[in-house]
């Protein structure tokens, strides 16, 4: 830990006088807490700047132009109003303004993630197309998996972002370089969850730098960081800008306003109250402190007037940049004319293989997941062994009631494994998925990778269940064909349940909601399976619902595979024939009929999962606040 004496107090660039005038700014009241990163690896503000360089130094940054942007958001009305300004290549632009002023919406619009309702955003003179490797976006929430070591996490991120055909050595070299440039080399082996907030934020920036972007957009990168760490991050971004990258960020931290080349200050209501050099901010409003700027801008917005001299007036922004197209700039067409930036995506098969490997690594790194995966089959097998007596399938002395229940609980066990394994797979990583989708991830390989990773685990659990029940004489001494049939029925039941779990996981917005789905999804599967109330005894409505229950088809396929109808009809127990009457032709069809239906359900659920995820990813890179 660095001593207080060794800690640098962040200093501010010239022009920050109005910030220093702030009555209670932390910079006025003594040295901030020590930051090992700052003390160890960051130069003093007056010393040499940090050795930041993207793996491929951009020839020049992106020129971004916002022209008369108006943005409406459903439920919030007009969020941006007639916003115009320029970000020149290699500039660091800071967007400020009170809470709810529209900073995030503006950032997303500038990045091309939201289409403007009116006006236009131009990237190098054309409307932005699909984001590619030349684009970096760091949302407020962390967009890296937390369970793997940082270096490995970035290697996987690089595999999805770097051009197809990039060798493993080049990927590793790129990761080493960005870690070094962001002062994170010494944390390469640390799991992401163990990094500090500032280190995690830098790790997210590192993932974006892997492709050497020409523009980097960051939503409140310094929020939650102590002043020293925040200042150091801003210096890092400043260095990137000096290397040529255009950087646009939003902030609530007053000191950040003076570390950029340009401030865009939004008033409540989403109008530009000021845009220009940071040093002229306070003077433009005739006040001494930035806090006063916030106050004046809010009051101005309330009274609906122009807030101060030097601020936005009719079509002209403070520093004289006109909002009309410059003479050299083509007029912006209102519709069409979208010229996507060139984009090379990693192929679907490679994405699937990389995602499957990453999911497996994540699973194995999470002790809790491994414990649940291994523990739940063992627990269920143990409960079965205690619950049922041996020999229920003995033709000489069968116990027909128990045979039906054993089949049902095998079906339900397979369903339960699949559902619980699937439920937390997607909702826990939605921000990561959205960001990677922007970087070129396809949803098809993503969903397929979940199935590929989990299905062998489920098949193992199902095989264990059947093997132990047979060893304990809870299943009949039948041939391999019977057990192959039981195994196929169980695995398909698990696969359909896994797909249902993935669908539920994709549909909810938080892991807590996914947990609530568990009983909701399990209850009807028990009640309408046809095991407790045989299908012929259900009401018409009940029978219709039972058609949609995968558990019904698994129960019938298992019963058919083990020959329940013949056992009940030909066995010596007098309870068999009445049961057969009760269950009707539930087990009369071949097991393959149930397999086809289960496979159909699995495909249907996967297809809907795919559609839900495509919609969510298109909906925005940041968390959807409408709760969709
Ligand atoms: N998807 C959405 N659904 C509903 N309202 C939204 C959505 N996105 C933005 N808004 C609304 O638009 C307004 C601007 O939101 P935005 O997040 O851009 O503000 P901000 O200036 O970034 O705020 P903060 O500084 O608090 O993060 C807010 O009133 C917000 O509630």
Which key features would you list for this structure?
disordered N terminus; single chain; Rossmann fold; alpha/beta; binds adenosine-5'-triphosphate; 628 residues; 9 strands
Give a short overview.
With 628 residues, this protein is of the alpha/beta class. The protein has helices at 17-20, 36-41, 103-110, 150-161, 168-181, 197-209, 227-242, 281-285, 290-303, 348-365, 367-387, 400-423, 430-438, 443-471, 480-507, 511-527, 540-547, 550-562, 564-570, 576-583, 591-619; strands at 64-73, 77-87, 92-97, 118-123, 135-138, 215-218, 246-250, 262-267, 271-276.
- Spatial order of the strands in the main sheet? 5-6-7-3-8-9
Shape summary: elongated
Tell me about the largest β-sheet: 6 strands, mixed
User: Structural class given helices, strands, pairing?
Assistant: alpha/beta
- Give the uncertain stretches in residue-range form: 1-11, 20-58, 302-342, 621-628
What's the alpha carbon Rg, rounded to whole Å? 31 Å
How much of the sequence lies in strands comes to 5-15%
Number of strands: 9
- What is the oligomer described by this structure? single chain
Measured between the Cα atoms of the first and last residue, the distance is 44 Å
Tally of helical runs: 21
Task: Estimate percent helicity.
Answer: 40-55%
Mean pLDDT: 82
Named once each, the bound ligands are: adenosine-5'-triphosphate
Secondary-structure element order, N to C? HHEEEHEEHHHEHEEEHHHHHHHHHHHHHH
């Amino acid at each position: 830990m660095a001593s207080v004496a060794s800690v640098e107090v962040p200093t501010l660039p010239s022009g920050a006088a109005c910030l220093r005038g702030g009555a209670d700014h932390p910079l006025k009241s003594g040295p901030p807490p020590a930051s090992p990163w700052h003390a160890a690896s960051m130069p003093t503000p007056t010393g040499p700047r940090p050795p930041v360089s993207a793996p491929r130094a951009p020839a020049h940054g992106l020129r971004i132009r916002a022209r008369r942007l108006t943005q409406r958001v459903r439920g919030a009305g007009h969020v941006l109003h007639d916003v115009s300004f320029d970000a020149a290549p290699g500039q660091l632009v800071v967007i400020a303004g009170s809470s709810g002023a529209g900073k995030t919406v503006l950032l997303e619009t500038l990045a091309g993630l939201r289409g403007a309702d009116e006006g236009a955003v131009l990237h190098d003179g054309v409307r932005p197309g699909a984001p590619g490797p030349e684009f970096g976006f760091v949302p407020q929430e962390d967009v890296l998996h937390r369970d793997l070591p940082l270096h490995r996490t970035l290697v996987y991120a690089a595999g999805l972002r770097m051009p197809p055909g990039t060798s493993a050595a080049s990927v590793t070299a790129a990761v080493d370089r960005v870690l070094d440039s962001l002062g994170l080399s010494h944390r390469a082996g640390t799991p992401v969850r163990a990094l500090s907030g500032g280190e995690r934020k830098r790790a997210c920036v590192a993932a974006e730098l892997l492709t050497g972007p020409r523009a980097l957009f960051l939503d409140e990168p310094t929020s939650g960081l102590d002043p020293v760490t925040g200042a150091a991050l801003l210096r890092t971004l400043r260095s990137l800008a000096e290397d040529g990258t255009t950087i646009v960020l939003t902030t609530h931290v007053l000191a950040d306003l003076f570390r950029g080349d340009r401030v865009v200050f939004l008033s409540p209501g989403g109008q530009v109250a000021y845009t220009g050099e940071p040093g002229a901010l306070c003077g433009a409003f005739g006040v001494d402190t930035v806090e006063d700027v916030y106050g004046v801008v809010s009051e101005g917005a309330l009274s609906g007037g122009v807030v101060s001299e030097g601020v936005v007036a009719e079509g002209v922004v403070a520093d004289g940049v006109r909002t009309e197209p410059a003479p050299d700039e083509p007029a912006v067409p209102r519709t069409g004319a979208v010229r996507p930036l060139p984009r090379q995506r990693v192929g679907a098969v490679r994405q699937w293989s990389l995602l499957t490997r990453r999911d497996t690594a994540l699973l194995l790194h999470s002790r809790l997941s491994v414990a649940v995966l291994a523990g739940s089959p063992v627990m269920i097998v143990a409960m079965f062994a205690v619950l049922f007596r041996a020999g229920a399938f003995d033709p000489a002395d069968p116990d027909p009631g128990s045979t039906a229940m054993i089949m049902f609980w095998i079906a339900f066990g397979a369903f339960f494994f699949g559902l619980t394994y699937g439920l937390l797979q997607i909702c826990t990583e939605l921000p990561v998925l959205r960001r990677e989708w922007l970087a070129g991830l396809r949803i098809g390989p993503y969903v397929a990778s979940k199935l590929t990773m989990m299905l062998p685990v489920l098949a193992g659990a199902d095989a264990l269940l059947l093997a132990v029940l047979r060893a304990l004489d809870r299943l009949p001494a039948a041939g391999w064909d019977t057990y192959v049939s039981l195994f196929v029925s169980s695995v398909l039941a698990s696969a359909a349940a896994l797909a249902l779990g993935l669908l539920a996981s994709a549909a909810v917005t938080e892991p807590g909601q996914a947990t609530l789905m568990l009983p909701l999804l399990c209850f009807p599967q028990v009640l309408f399976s046809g095991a407790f109330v045989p299908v012929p005894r259900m009401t018409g409505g009940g029978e219709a619902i039972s058609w949609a229950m995968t558990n019904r088809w698994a129960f019938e396929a298992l019963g058919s595979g083990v020959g329940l109808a013949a056992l009940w009809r030909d066995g010596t127990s007098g309870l068999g024939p009445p049961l057969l009457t009760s269950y009707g032709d539930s087990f009369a069809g071949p097991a393959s009929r149930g397999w086809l239906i289960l496979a159909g359900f699995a495909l249907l659920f996967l297809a809907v999962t795919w559609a839900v995820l495509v919609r969510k990813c298109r909906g925005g890179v940041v968390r959807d606040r409408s709760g969709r």
